[in-house]
Amino acid sequence: MTDAPAIVTRDLAKRYGSIQALAGLTMTIPRGAVFGFLGPNGAGKTTAVKLLLGLATPTSGSGEILGHPIGERASRRRVGYLPELFRYQGWLTAREVLALHCELAGIDHAAWQREIEDALAVVGLSDRGASRVGTFSKGMQQRLGLGVALLGSPEVVLLDEPTSALDPVGRHDVREIIRTLRERGVTVFLNSHLLSEVEQVCDRVIIVDHGKIIADGTLDELLRTDTVRLRVNDLPRDGVAQLASFGKITEEGEWLVVRAVDAERVPELVAAIVRMGGRVYAVEPKHESLEDRFLRLLEGS
Fold first, then answer.
1. Which CATH class is domain 7-219?
2. Against a cut of 0.70, is the pTM above it?
């Protein structure tokens, strides 16, 4: 099933009593992509990860990982996972932690040394393999958790808030590790609420709220500019009202900010202002950040 997408879900849903934790999640994630899964707290992100890993059973719907139904051993065999909250025994060394997880993962004993050294190298801990976990900083423990997730050369890696507890240097290091995985052809499913991190590493994003998808696309598609700023003088008192057909308009001093405007209509907008006696001194596209877009989508939902 080498041609199967990394992850597919069809109307995947989970209900806990009267609470709809996830409502009809449908998505297809191609192989080799870094995929951001975003949403506010309580949006259904962690529930989706549990369903994909077989840690929870869906109420309805279905899904596959690497062509195998979610929850089956075959679907989990090629998947690495870094949970948001984890803790390793402080008295163990980094290599001992990795060896323990090699055994738990059923990796052939003859391959342990290679797997352990490769994982330490990727996460930048080769020189600390003999150090006890209890001496590690938060950032180093997070690196070790990533190393555990990479054992067995997984084709899909699910990361649940991998940078939330890290300082800027630690977040930079994790981003570099994610980029290294992408270069290797590994599919990364990144569950995060740190939008600036997602914007820097993800190829595609899904945003969920109240258990439902409210946006899905590449970053270019989601952040495509549909807002323009115009510096205008001498506009009649009712000028903004007359321009309402072009989009949602707000005034910021000398500037008019027009949202949800079709780029093809911007020359027509300028001509309409001039016909009313207005003077246009500047026209600037306004580029949205992922955070701006995220907040607007949540407001709309």
1. alpha beta
2. yes
Q: Which CATH architecture fits 228-285? A: 2-Layer Sandwich (3.30)
Tokens read off for 208: 């969920």
Closest CA to 94 of 172, 176, 151: 151
Structure tokens at 46: 């962690």
pLDDT tens, the chain, 301 aa long: 567 889 999 999 999 988 888 888 899 999 988 999 988 777 788 889 999 998 899 999 999 999 999 988 877 888 999 888 788 888 999 999 999 999 988 899 999 999 999 999 988 899 999 999 999 988 888 889 999 999 988 999 999 888 776 778 878 888 888 888 899 899 999 988 777 778 888 888 888 887 788 888 787 777 766 788 889 998 888 888 888 888 888 888 888 888 777 778 889 999 999 999 999 999 887 766 676 776 777 766 6
Domain ranges of the chain: 7-219, 228-285
